[in-house]
Design brief:
Length: 472
């Protein structure tokens, strides 16, 4: 059939005079070009309309997350009976503050900071809330958060790593699921080292327990990770060169005098991690710390040093297993800890806390054009809640800032609400953080002279990442 048809066409075409043949060829080509042009234009229009749709969506999402939400709590009337520990902390007759109430396990406000009704758990197993409304994907900062087995998530002082090959997020943090106690009169509350937990999730909300990926050492008392020591703020990055997952963590004795960093490695994100060694980076003390991997694959260790007076930043070796000699002191004499670093449009940002032990304090945001500094302090990034919320980082302390994939300029600020009396029941405070690059904002912020965008962390009693995020 095909051959016959072709022959027929050839036969007729041959019979057409030469000049008309030429005109016909031109006409056919014009038509082809026209059709191609139309279809190109159409795809282009479709693309740009979907792009502007995305931009519109993005704007409405930003408006939603950046809504300013107020929060109220009333200080309870003064009572005579207080827990002896709280009384001791208060010292003489200074009026009680919201922080005193927060730290006092017998306070009437306890429930406000540490709700414990089962109906209020963040539960990924499709359970309805008290009003029979599905609370799927909603973060409720401060509430207990369950994993897919129904157990409270134990990943304190943690950080999140996205792994392309598995399309999963991995949340690493301290397993503090043991009794809180004081080692001696003047010692702070502590929990023995249990190890570093890992959870995996496709959506940053439904977390599956992958177990303890770096356990504490139970018998060898001279081991860095002996259960009587301290392991805090574990963070993991991936090393392309050696195809290894590298974990850095704060390693210390129970009096915080060793002030070192430890390193562990694994071939897979879910471990087990092999502990390598600990060090004082370039000979300096290192307490609260984090690591940051830049776009050019260089990585850095940022740590509180010199009795928490300064932060230091040290570049890591190419295998990420040690520091190089390249080191700078930053935020000198500012007494900052709990650093978390992120980058947006070639500017580096950092959120830090003050140094007040387990008690919450005011966060500060900082910015720099080069990661090695100079770093400039921008101010308190907390927005909404109330005055006390803003002065206490929403009664929590930052640990990590996670970029929201597909939403440039949008991040999740991850923080810990430390439960001083019972550290295992410390809560997670995850909130939207945005880098607000609008020119008007900059003008207002710093009389038009600053090159820095504004960093804002918005309080929400309940919020979720845009549904578009889960499709991407
Ligand atoms: C929720 O659903 C349960 C079971 O269907 C029902 O018994 C209960 O009254 C409902 N609660 C509310 C607040 O609607
Ligand atoms: C105990 O730990 C130390 C320090 O890591 C190590 O040198 C030593 O070999 C360990 N001892 C045993 C019996 O494993
Ligand atoms: C911590 O300090 C206390 C009091 O100074 C002391 O008794 C204890 O031995 C110290 N512990 C360690 C592990 O250094």
């Amino acid at each position: 059939m095909m051959t016959k048809h072709k022959n027929t066409f050839a036969f007729h075409y041959k019979k057409i005079p030469k000049r008309q043949k030429c005109a016909l060829t031109v006409a056919i080509w014009t038509l082809v070009v026209f059709i191609v042009a139309i279809s190109l234009l159409q795809t282009d229009m479709r693309k740009s309309s979907s792009q502007s749709q995305l931009r519109l969506n993005h704007l409405s999402i930003a408006r939603e997350l950046e809504k300013i939400e107020h929060e109220e709590f009333h200080m309870p009337p003064t009572r005579r009976k207080r827990s002896p520990r709280a009384f001791q902390r208060r010292g003489n007759r200074r009026p009680r503050t919201a922080i005193d109430e927060f730290l006092d396990e017998s306070s009437d406000l306890r429930y406000f900071f540490f709700p414990d009704s089962r109906r209020e758990y963040v539960d990924p197993r499709g359970i309805l809330d008290a009003n029979n409304i599905s609370s799927t994907y909603y973060y409720y900062p401060g509430r207990r958060w369950l994993d897919t087995d129904g157990n409270p998530i134990q990943a304190h002082g943690g950080g999140v790593l996205y792994v392309e090959s598995t399309s999963l997020y991995y949340w690493y943090g301290e397993n503090k699921n043991g009794p809180s106690y004081h080692t001696h009169e003047k010692g702070t509350t502590r929990v023995d080292i249990i190890g570093v937990n890992c959870y995996s999730s496709p959506d940053l909300w439904t977390w599956k327990n992958e177990g303890i990926v770096l356990p504490g050492e139970e018998t060898n008392v001279s081991h860095d990770l002996h259960i009587s020591n301290v392991l805090e703020r574990p963070k993991v990055i991936y090393n392309e060169k050696n195809d290894q997952y590298i974990m850095w963590m704060h390693v210390d004795d129970s009096n915080y005098t060793r002030a070192s960093v430890g390193v562990a490695i694994s071939k897979t994100p879910t471990g087990p991690f092999t502990y390598l060694h600990s060090t004082r980076p370039n000979g300096y003390e290192s307490r609260d710390m984090t690591i940051f991997k830049d776009d050019d694959l260089k990585a850095y260790l940022i740590y509180s040093s010199e009795d928490n007076t300064d932060l230091h930043i040290s570049q890591l070796t190419d295998d990420y297993l040690d520091v190089t000699g390249s080191m700078r002191k930053i935020l000198v004499s500012q007494h900052r800890e709990a650093p978390s670093i992120f980058k947006y449009e070639n500017i580096y940002y950092m959120v830090t806390s003050g140094c007040t032990g387990w008690a919450p304090n005011k966060a500060l945001a900082h910015a720099a054009e080069s990661i090695m500094g100079p770093w400039e302090t921008l101010g308190n990034p907390c927005v909404g809640g109330n005055k006390m919320f803003k002065m206490t980082t929403f009664f929590s302390q930052g640990t990590f800032v996670l970029p929201l994939k597909g939403f440039p300029g949008s991040f999740i600020f991850m923080a810990d609400r430390w439960n001083y009396a019972e550290l295992s029941d410390s809560r997670y405070v995850w909130l939207p953080l945005s880098v607000d690059g609008s020119f008007d904002d900059r003008m207002e912020y710093n009389f038009g002279f600053s090159a820095w965008s504004k960093i804002s962390i918005y309080w929400h009693r309940k919020w979720r990442v845009p549904s578009e995020f889960r499709i991407l």
